[in-house]
Write a structure and sequence with these properties.
Structural class: alpha/beta
Radius of gyration: 18 Å
Strand order of the largest sheet: 2-7-5
Strand content: 25-35%
Order of helices and strands: EEEEEHHEHEHH
Distance between the termini: 22 Å
Helix content: 40-55%
Largest sheet: 3 strands, mixed
Length: 127
């Protein structure tokens, strides 16, 4: 049986949603019982092109190859330039803090890297 080879590319029908919002949950005991508070910090955002320039695209590519291997998708072809191209073409929603999409620290750059990888992994899952 021959497997059909699939080349990863942009598909307008795929919409991706990644939630990297910060969540805080607290419980306190009061005279009337337990009181629970939940807070979520993060808005729907797109990653600006100047932030995408900070991403280590080789690392993203290698991560996607590893992800593909773990899923057993032997027939999927991912070209080295594809992850960068996809981020400019696919429809995605990222729920995150401003610091994730416009990092000003090394830790922030790592969150940006993680956001891009999460978006592309989710895209791969749907593709």
């Amino acid at each position: 049986m021959n497997e059909e080879r699939l080349i990863l590319e942009s598909d307008d029908n795929i919409k991706v949603r990644v939630d990297m919002s910060v969540r805080v949950q607290a419980m306190s005991s009061t005279a009337t019982g337990l009181h629970e508070v939940q807070v979520r910090a993060g808005d729907e955002r797109q990653i600006p092109s100047e932030s995408l320039a900070l991403v280590d695209w080789e690392r993203v590519y290698l991560d996607l190859l590893d992800y593909k291997a773990r899923k057993g998708w032997r027939n999927l072809i991912i070209r080295p330039e594809t992850p960068r191209q996809l981020m400019g073409q696919i429809a995605y929603t990222l729920i995150a803090d401003e610091a994730v999409v416009r990092p000003n620290t090394f830790a922030g750059r790592e969150l940006l890297q993680q956001a891009v990888t999460n978006i592309l992994r989710k895209y791969l899952d749907t593709f």
